[in-house]
Amino acid sequence: MSTTQDGAPGMVGGRNHFTDFDLDSREFSDNFDEVVDAVHAGCPVARSEALGGYWVVSGFDDIRRIGQDWQTWTNTDGYEPNRLGDDNARLYPLEIDPPYQTRWRALLGDFFSPRAIRTKKPSVEKNVNELIDRFVESGQCDFIDAFAAHLPGRVFFSTMLGVPLEDLPYLQAAADQAVRGPFETRAEGWNKVGAYLDGYLKQRKQEEPRGDFVDAILAGVETDDGEPAPWHHKIFVMVDMLAGGLATTSILLAGIADFLATHPEDAARLAADPSLHENAIEEIIRYYASILALGRTATKDTEIAGQPIKKGEMVMLSYAAAARDPRYFENPHTIDITRKIPTNIAFGYGPHRCIGSHLARLQGLTTLAVLLERLPDLRLAPGTRPTFSHSTVTRDLENLHVVFTPGAKLGESA
Amino acid sequence: MKAIVDSALCAGRGLCYRSAPKVFSSDEDGFNAAVGGVVEVPEGRERMARMGASACPESAIQVVDDPGAP
Predict the structure, then answer these.
(1) Whole-angstrom distance, CA of residue A276 vs CA of residue A281
(2) pTM for this structure?
(3) Residues of A in contact with B59 (CB under 8 A)
């Protein structure tokens, strides 16, 4: 029990995380396990004065209850603090409530169902192998720069959106800037992505329908007023799929490499027994949970775990903390590839639960299998270890330097 | 009462129709038969519908009381 290391409950690393929580603080990202233990032990609803003030909810059960109760907890005030008034760049269906949200999910869901995603396996595998070909002969790389930052964009742009291959480098660079560029240039990155997608949607509108995801968005759904969804809502949907699917999956892929590099016995076990892969990926998703927290706003005066919450106040649901709730997970900070996970709360809960969970799982499973086969002795570069950083909603891994015995390219046979 | 079954989430784990067989059923691949649509919950089966929904490990089923819901 480390909650009192500095004297007061909630004090870890020089900050009181009960009364002065800050999702973005180094005191949190540098002491993640300890802070999560402390809030689970003594503060299910922590207070933050950062970004205008918000609450942080960490309990698995509390998050499940709030996630389902969209009447009390609206998404229309944004997914993080300080989103009010900014209607030019929204993320839909994340930042709308049922029933409008339900109609979008019903429309988009068919393209993300396990049955639909299964058909993408050859394309994902090809992209994984092509990326590995680019560094496999060198025996070392920064796995994030070389692989994890690229696969989700390639998969999404080429297999889901069907954009021309020659546009991929531009779009990937813009998305990269938006998601992990220097903070002050991220908005510019999103503007580039939004402008490209706007142009692409307009172009596709003129073409013969392909019956794909883009045509579904073009068809759209009705708003709650019974009107066809306006054009800008369709752009918000496109941008949401990217905002939700790129950085989050990158962190998962980096997590897989970090895990294999630091757990050689588990890696050997997984190489020998592929039937363990699915469960291992669930556990890696739980442990590296890439969504640190997402927001809801109270539509009325209410309470969580005895803490009164006033109408209009924002709560950040910490999926990453809930994924380490000791009430559900014994030794929550240990990766146990045979652990049975009741619900992978890392994907959220309720109507807004991650629409791309099965696509993320497929990318994870494919990456795991190919890494085990092509880079079987993957290790962290001597003297290095990755660091975690936080950007309010995501938990990032930085600088994953790895080494391995150089291998041969698969080239065209990939 | 209605139960909305999200097609992006349903993974065919089968806990809904095993715990609430009078409300949910399975398709030929083991997914919820109403995936991507809505189940009209029969009168008197509301509690079972809630149980079936909360049994889903993917949280794919949303139960809605509101008669104006989609």
Answers:
(1) 9
(2) 0.95
(3) 64, 67-68, 343, 348-350, 353
Among B5, B6, B16, the residue to mutate for chain A (most A Cβ within 10 A): B6
Measure CA A312 to chain center.
26
Rg (CA), chain A: 21
| pLDDT tens-digit map of A107-136 | 999 999 999 999 999 999 999 999 999 999
On the 0-12 / 13-18 / 19+ scale of CB atoms within 10 A, A72 is middle
Task: List chain A residues with CB under 8 Å of B64.
Answer: 98
What are the tens digits of pLDDT across the range A299-310?
A: 999 999 999 999
Q: Which of A108, A114, A355 sits opposite B11 (nearest CB)?
A: A114
| pLDDT average, residue stretch A230-259 | 94
Separation of alpha carbons A333 and A329, rounded Å: 9
**Any CB–CB contact under 8 A between A73 and chain B?**
no
CA–CA distance, A67 with A73 (Å, rounded to integer): 8
Give dist(CA A332, CA A283) in Å, integer: 10
Asked whether the beta carbons of A120 and A362 are under 8 A apart, the reply is yes
pLDDT in tens, A321-367: 999 999 999 999 999 999 999 999 999 999 999 999 999 999 999 99
> Which candidate from B7, B12, B29 shows the least CB-CB separation from A110?
B7
B 14-53 → A contacts, CB under 8 A = 29, 31, 35-37
> Are A346 and A323 within 8 A, CB to CB?
yes
Question: What pLDDT is stored for residue B68 in this prediction?
Answer: 52
ipTM exceeding the 0.95 mark: no
d(CA B33, CA A233): 30
Tell me if residue B27 falls in helix, strand or coil: coil
Over 50: is that where the pLDDT of B67 sits?
A: yes
Mark yes or no for CB contact B59/A350 under 8 Å. Answer: yes
Interacting residues of B30 by C-beta distance below 8 A, sequence separation 6+: B12, B14
pLDDT digits (tens, 9 = 90+) for A266-279: 999 999 999 999 99
Q: What are phi and psi of A177, to 5 degrees?
A: -60, -45
Sign of the torsion angle spanned by Cα atoms A396, A152, A338, A116: positive
Spatial neighbors of A207 by CB under 8 A, at least 6 apart, are: none
Q: Report the C-alpha gap between A225 and A248 in whole angstroms.
A: 33
Whether B55 contacts B32, CB under 8 Å:
no
Query: Which residue from B29, B36, B60 is facing A106, i.e. has the nearest CB?
Result: B36
Handedness of CA A328, A320, A160, A258 (dihedral sign): negative
Instruction: Output the pLDDT for position A165.
Output: 76
Rg of chain B over Cα atoms, rounded to whole angstroms, equals 11
